[in-house]
Amino acid sequence: MASTIALTSGSASASPVFGYSGYSYGTDVESGLANSGPQVISKFGCTTDANKADKNDIAAANVNGQAIARSVKTDTHGFNNASGTGVTSTAVAADVKVGNLLALTGVKTTTTSKYSKGQLSYTGSTTFAGVKIGAITVPSLINPGPNTKVAVPGLGYIVLNRVGGVKTASGIYSYAQAVVIHATVKNQFIPQGVDVAVLKTRAEISKPATALVIGDAYGTKATADKLVVSDATSLQTTCQGTEGKTVRVAVGELNIPKVAYVGGVYTTKNGAIGESKSYINFTSHVAGVKVGTLSIGAIESSASAWKTKDNKAGVSSSSSIASIKVGNKTYPVKTGENQTLDIPGVAKLTFNQVLRQKRYISVNALVIDVYSLNTKVVVGHSAAGVVS
After folding, report:
1. How far is CA 70 from the centre of its chain?
2. What is the C-alpha separation between 210 and 66, in angstroms, rounded?
3. Average pLDDT of the chain?
4. Which pLDDT value is given to residue 124?
5. DSSP per-residue codes, 196-257
6. Predicted confidence band of residue 3 (pLDDT cuts 50, 70, 90)
7. Using CA atoms, how far apart are residues 278 and 307, in angstroms rounded to an integer?
């Protein structure tokens, strides 16, 4: 299934613009089997609006049924003031606990990327009010240096204040994470082999350009009664592309409690902004999804957008689904855009759900409306566009 639309204009190119994007997560499972994707998320994709902002807060962020972070608040906002123009992302929590193995209190992490007087720069940091490993209080870790690795008996190890920034020819992005928990030994709190980032932030700004590339991709997202029960998995966004390199983000199997089991998920992005042409391509790949008796085979989608210096532009999308089964019965995968299949008593399926706007296209390979759970699961999302 594929669709393409080309847009042309005879007007002159728009004035150079900046691109802003960023996110803050309460928790994010980075590998292995987990009970949800990112939680307590505030984010926005690429925008030219320096006043863009998003906030979120929740009592607790859970991983594997455990309340890992409590009283979590996240904030991501753009700015344009005397210091420059850019994005700041912040996440705070009253405490972060892994049973009796680890206790962090008064946790705050923040990162900023900005453009000022022709220069790109970033900052990032994490602070704690208290750090306790097992029964031992460790005052020296209240203001940890970047990427401080500490062993945690009975769990594995943690990395405190994971920070960094990447500068490209097109802009800069920075990241800061309060703590990354690596569960390398068997324990009752986090499955062995799982990595969990707690208070994870990212900020990105592009240099002035005649056209920015926008879009996002994720594997799955689930909502029930308009409440997010599992946010975007393997999420990728962009403002400045990837300098033509393919960036891949993957997670392992995913169990959305009482809703669905999802196989391995990965997304890719590839694109660049330049004087002659700007382009972006996102893809999403899901190994399979099971919702009750409903079993869906491999699911994929892609979305692309481009624009040239003479103001020619276009967008395209595609999606595919390998198979659909309920028990031993196989159902056909319908072709074309926005096709539906009703399976009485089970779910309504929407295939190749496409949305077009000016120089922008998004596609959901599959949307599952589960009747018994009043839940909507989006699978295989890709979107791409250009802004000038």
Report:
1. 21
2. 47
3. 88
4. 95
5. EEEEEEEEEEEPPBS-EEEEEEEEEEEEETTEEEE--TT-EE-SSB-TT--EEEEE--EEET
6. very low
7. 5
